[in-house]
Amino acid sequence: MTVLKTSMRNFFAHKGRMALSAVAVLLSVAFVCGTLVFTDTMNTTFDKLFAATSSDVTVSPKDASDSGETTSDTGRPPVLPASVVGKVRGAEGVKSAEGTMFSSSVTVVDADKDSLSPTSGAPTIVGSWNGNDARTMKITGGAAPKGADQIMVDADTADKHHLKLGDEISVISATGTHSARISGFAAFTVTNPGAAIFYLDTATAQKTLVGRTGVFTSINVTAAAGVTDPALKKNVLGALGTGYKVQTAKEVSDANQKELSGFLDVMKYAMLGFAGVAFLVGIFLIINTFSMLVAQRTREIGLMRAIGSSRRQVNRSVLVEALLLGVVGSVLGVAAGVGIAVGLMKVMGSVGMKLSTDDLTVAWTTPVAGIALGVIVTVLAAYLPARRAGKVSPMAALRDAGAPADARAGRVRAVLGILLTGAGAVSLYATSQAGGATEGSAWLGLGVVLTLIGFVVVGPLLASGVVRVLGTVLLRPLGSVGRMAERNALRNPRRTGATGAALMIGLALVACLSVVGSSMVASATDQLDKTVGTDFIIQSDSGQLITPEAVKAVKSVPGMERVTEYRVTEADYTTPDGKTLKDTDITAADPTYAEDVRTKTVAGDIADAYKPDSMSVNEKFAEDHGVRLGSKIKVDFKDGSAARLTVRAITSDDVVIDKGAMYTSTATLAKYVPADRMPLDVVLFGSSEEGQQDAAYKALKAELHDYPQYTVRDQTDYKQELKDQIGQLLNLIYGLLALAIIVAVLGVVNTLALSVVERTREIGLMRAIGLSRRQLRRMIRLESVVIALFGALLGLGLGMGWGASAQKLLALEGLKVLDIPWPTIIGVFVGSAFVGLFAALVPAFRAGRMNVLTAIATE
């Protein structure tokens, strides 16, 4: 009880000094809990949606996906004959069965040809209005579509694009473009996470999406009273046989959730990873805080020891303070985490994915995990200072000698740090010599961990050297104030090293990712310059296939010398070694593709692969299956017949564009696949006639105005788009890393604030002999700047080393250009100086306001 009272008294006596450490714990816990609440809410929202929109049993074509996805490489959804509906209705336990038609391989535009598709990445769905949809949607205006000239729109999409009854909109699909006027609006009775949905009558939906009537994409089956979904599924299978996919509502919902979980898991673990970085940075802040508090309470600890307190009790007293700090910071962090989750939902809403706060999900495990993590990390971080406090000798403490200096421990630490850093450097070198991505990734991970730990351990030794260099260059020219700032930073190298290490971690990740991102852009640009010989690239940024209408429009543009079509489909390969490879991609392109993209080969000429009944294989495939020039491979095309194709070229794996692709000609594909089952183009390549590039570029954009899902880019545009995409990804990562940097800044503020308290008497004496308030504040600001720059130097140097090693792994994938983004590196270094200035504002202001006589009298 005495230990608890002492800890409580000390905690509240130093509540101002604890505040910044509590904020660090709060931010880290909030990020963890916010991530968990947000992803749990996403899961809840989609679970409700999938459960509400699934019929008791769904019957689909055998080649439809488990999740009900209707896209295919032909641009048309897989279908089943309408006669199946009658068979299903005759099955025992069926109350009703209704055929439906829908597809997500569509684009919908308004009268101005502007896309009505979501910008959030959610799908655009066009389907037939049916009884199952009527259960989950309510018509809020107008009426359901009747006839080919009517279409109904979901209310969210209508509100977003200011659509009104009677407005004309057009559906663009693989079969052509169908225009209709809005007959009504339907609102979801459950949360719609952002999909744009359009309804036609059944016959019009069939003609628009697949070009013929008498077929459906699925059949919604409702069970009679007392019949369970599994029993109904069994009965339907008995009536239909094995030629169809039959699923219960739970199976459809689980398949949809599984498909979604991949995206959510990536986002969840990425955000938790950044929270982990923030926790790691916070550890340094907590260690520094408690180390300095222990040092400032040396005499108090000595008195406690002198009146009978044991080492264990002193140790326990400090750990109880840490426990209180962890509990307070973690509880506040859990509450802040819910706020972060709501904020993330609002952000998602601004880009079109609507998430209702009614579905906000806070599982009991979230606060438990957040509080447990925050408390454990805080107590572990305070363990070393607590252990050090327990070792304070009563007599030494009463003499104000503090904890005994341990020179031997310092030497051991320095040697250990150098060994770890050296081992890490060897691992990073091994990364550059690795022959495969798996081996290289293992060496890279080991090198990153070892060098990071090594730099943290050897930090005090580095601080002694680096701060002196920075002081010589930046501080000593500023006179006595600069020299005092340098001396203060060097006074406790361990503290300076720990404070700089906190900033080092965040900046090391920033530098590493900057080098990797810049190298990827430079390498891809280099590959484009070397291999791409076409003027224009036409494709959909959302992954939509290119419809025959759009291909015809591109080919009609004047001034074009050639247009190359490029398709991808699947086939089963039977190789000379007798093995069969199922569902393997094969690329079918026009022979001019050999001119558009200069593909490197290790044997044969790539142009020969486009001859009749010919193909190419990639280098690894050839090695694995004993394929040589002239080998025959049986290729059983999806939706087509089997062919025996002759290998005319073996492509190199030392490429970036189309790495691993196996080519044949469009004519060969058309020979074995019926016209109505031919896959649509993934991308088109166009080259203009000499001197007509600018005119053809403008003409292409004008011709594709009616098809907003496709983008025309020349090589300059393509390079810029690549740069922008990587830049956006890096900016997002930098934003997440900002959390770790904020915590590191709090660490600098805390260190300076406690350092000012520690040096109260010294500051009073300096003021008494003539140091002005302005000079005092400048001294503290310069001390902060040099600590920040020390951390920045370590972080940027370490990060560039990691980035250069990571680039060696990218080189195995053909990205061979190492590019150091010096403007970013220099900008971050200079920015670190401003971070130091900002962190020193409050401590410098408080130091300047000290009463001289009171400060001198302080013991």
Automatic annotation (TrEMBL):
Record-annotated MacB-like periplasmic core domain positions: 19-235, 499-669
One Pfam short name: FtsX
Keywords associated with the record: Cell membrane, Membrane, Transmembrane, Transmembrane helix
Intracellular or extracellular location(s): Cell membrane
A GO cellular component entry from the record: plasma membrane
Record field: transmembrane: 269-295, 318-342, 362-384, 412-430, 442-475, 496-517, 732-757, 782-802, 822-842
Chain intervals for the UniProt region annotation (Disordered): 58-80
Protein name, UniProt field: ABC transporter transmembrane subunit
Species annotation: Streptomyces griseoaurantiacus M045
